[in-house]
From TrEMBL:
This is SAC domain-containing protein. Coiled coil: none annotated. It comes from the Eukaryota. It comes from Tritrichomonas foetus. GO terms for molecular function: phosphatase activity. Pfam families: Syja_N.
Amino acid sequence: MQKINTQVHVFQPPGLYVYLVVTPSTESVSYVFTVDLTTGCLFYSATPFVDVFKSHRSACLSIAKRFSETVNSTQIKKWTGKALIGLTYENQHLVIGLIQSSKKVASLPNGSSIKQINQTDFVTIPLKTYNPKNNNPPSFTQFPLNEMHFYCETADLTRPYPSEHSVEDCDNDFCWNQRWRIPFVRIGLENVCIVMLQGFSLTSDLHTDEEITYIVRRSVLNPYTRYTSRGTNQNGAPGNEVECELILNDKNSNFLSNCWRRGSIPIKWSTVVGTVGSAQHIVSPFQDNGTTNYFNSISERFGNIPITIINLLNDSENNLTDAYKKAVDKLQFIDFKTYDIGSMPENFLVETFQSVMRPLAEMTEFTVGHNNIVTSKQKRILRFNCADSTDRTNVATFIYARALVEMRQCDDRANDFLANAFIKAGDVISIMYMSTPAARSGVIRSTVTGISHAKSSDMTLSCVRRFKHIARFDSVSDGVINNWISKDICFTPLYSLDYNDMSIIRNVSMCLQNMNPLDSSIIDYEYTMITASKNTSTELIIQFPMPMILCVLRLMLLPSSAGEIPSSFTLSCGMDNNSKSCYLKDVLLPVVKVPTFAKYSLAHAPRWGVQAPLVQSASELVRFVWITFDRKVDDMKISNVSVDAYIPKIEIKMPTFKCMESNVLEEYEKRIRAFMSKNERNISDLVELEAFRLRSKISLNIRNAIMIRFGVNPAISSIRFFLLRSETNEQICSFCRKSLGNSKVMSFFLHETFKSLLNPLKPQPQHPSSYSLCKECSQQLLMCSSVIKELEGMIEKVDVPSMPKNKWKIEEIDGRVNLSKCKAIFFEYPKEATGCVNDLLKDGNDDFIGNERCCYTRSEDDKISNFIINEKSMNESRNENIVDCDSNIVENNREIEQPKNCYIIDSKNEKQFFFTICFTSASIPDELFIEFDKLLPKSVDIISPLKCQPVMKRNESSISLRFESDILNCISFVITANEDQNSIVMKNVKCMGQFTEKRKGSPQWFTFPIPNFKGNCFPGYWDKITRTQTFTLKSPAILRRVNFMVPCINGTLPQSILLAIYDKRNYLVKSTHILIPQPQPQQGIGTKIEMNYRISDAPAGSVIKLFYLDLIERLKPYDVNFLLMPSTPERGMAQSKLF
């Protein structure tokens, strides 16, 4: 296949997502990454024809087609690049680093090209949570990137040549874009990013049979400017650490290489600079094992070889020399040599010092090899240093390199190359460490005739360096460097799934029964309204591309003028139909004035004060989400749905809280009564009451039903309620509100699983998110430690297995079935056809998949028969959920009579034929059915990983295999012909299992006017302590509707409200839980949204109470009004009951 260059495209259409398309030069496929602009997270599911394609062009076209019906092409922002640095987040912005221009500056003996980065571009896109008042747009352009960094796409440069490691398996000590690679490392596709090295690389152009390559790679472990990165840091890494490598090779693939190190003195020391620029070196009296560990790591890197230290400090720096020598005296494998090259005559410095280096060069020897195979290794490594490891070190290492080249008897052109290379490399190292080019370059320049003088004198450079430090330019540079390499990124693997990553399930019952699905455009576009008619299901099933945890549900709320809309919905989740678990049941849907997106944050369910999820497994890893709408009429309007999900590292499993044993519930109610009768309640009372509920697996809904009979807010039984009831004050106890005084204060965090309890097992020092307790409250909480330990026994933590991410090859993806379309194709892919199929599927033939007819003709010399593929629409004659992949293939052999609608395979010579069917999203197939004409083959075997051996059933004209599989992206099988069988004729191939529905076009956006809600306003009383709103009616009335004015903001709002109606005797006659979604801010809908809820079958009442159950800080009640109707005496006699 023709070699291609790396291609990168970034697309930002209007909406919530950014698409990153990358085609690495080292691979034959293109990847599409979806970035969620709500959370900033990157998503990739390894699904062919969704986020992995056979060419860069087809990947880009797929994105264009997604928006062709709804967005003008001019509205899609586009960026391009020649390589990808990576992706990161900063100040609520998404930043994508692209290389715009690079230049080949060197090559390795194996032919790998080394490119210098010359021009970059940072695509900066604000996230939806960005607030211009709080954050400034990030800028990475201050980092000196261009002409200071290089990369290689085909070989590992972070280790000495030849490295046995792959490019992506780099040594992070020398990788300068680790921060940018993190999102791709997490999904196992770090290979789409370059490995960026800081330093210099150059290959000689000597016009001889030999080449010289000089590589300088600077360490990232202690990367700051010289007065910050003096000596070793807390991790034992020296400042300005550089590994240099000189490689010599000939045209016969023979090579020699020699490595050395240079860097700051690897002990703990610093420099104090006076106000007038004078400097004093100070050695720390507290030395650690950093020096020993550093030299051990170098020796091990090169095969446990000895090290010779070349110390270039002068007499005025003896305190550093003495401390350095003392630190390495105990290391048997180190020789310590000191040379003051500053005292040598400059005119004779090169010759004098080269005579010193010559025997050392001969002692170190070369690593010798042929064709990437090492035959002998370097015997010793030199480590150079001066005070800054810049100027003197650069001169000394240049002379050492001359001694190495002299051993090979190279001519003057080699020495000229070394001079130019060391001048440029020395400038790069000096600029990164001292913000100026290297000094003392005159010594190197003097070895080359006709070379220009340095632009600045050594004295000028010294003054500039001191000025930049005194003027604090160095501290600014340190901040820029730290920001570039920082890996402390707040990352939550939360994905707001693009509709291409979700699917509407064709089968409503998921048990092989045909039913008409909802219009799949309900998840396709931002604004859609569909009608669920009499013959259409009102259950929407969404399939995730892989097991994920559902954390956000978004619905578009509709006004009543849109037509009949559902009054409630039930949310369920599960891995399959048999494990369907209820998350929320009969959630009331409000009516609004204009269509409004609203968010149910399921991740915050623990603070709602109700049992959510109802079945605990619904909050675990799931693949399917069921949304069942309440249906009272034949023609009903439903609008958009979207979800957020995430993939945790650890899954927490808990039992379901569904205890209904009468004796247990009676005991619990008895404990509640005792709790309510106390005038003062302490921490142990709350822990014991909550522990009994958790231990007995009693639902929060039962607790709520009991406590509202007493007319009190059920939230008062939670410790968290007391902690949040008033403003935080560091001088008082968070629970009892008593002064802390001068006594010893202990702080505690909320339990990570049982959110209603403080965790006494992990007391902490004071922390902004912890709660400080007085001595008495702390002792009471600590006495409950055994109770918390018992409760933790209910928790099971399970490591989440990583979803396999296929790294597709072109021959694995070409011609596979695309089940996101109503039509599908299926064809054989013999090994001999590799070249032909690749030619067929190059750019320009991207329409091979999905056209009704596609023809390709081979030459007469080609051994593979000509074929034509005709697609047919899916066969729905069977009452099953199937994928029908009929294909007609005609052989170019007139002697063979081609039956209609079949595929003939010539099996005269070959007896085994391999096939693959690929699914649009990860699916669970369970049966493969193949219908044959004439003679059946010897066998059909599935070669994809299965849970158990498949069961084969042979009929007169067909073979079927029933099996159990895990989640798969594709299924592969092999057909084996009989020994005497000259042809296999296939008529039909079907793969049965769960299937995805084709997405349809976008309906138009709609608006509906609605008159203002007219209700009765009553003076209500807000009790801040108990978080209860009380409304007393003048006379008994029947509540028909309740209206909440919900602010349209991004902040935290109360969502969980328990509405209770009491009669004039204070008996509870009706209660309803209302879950208020958070409206999403959007243009044109105002600052507040009226959400109107219908209350069904309410008897007459005299008092209405709204209990705010949310366990959040600074809770404020909503503005509320009601729609009431006069009551009759009979309507007011209903009694309270437990529900």
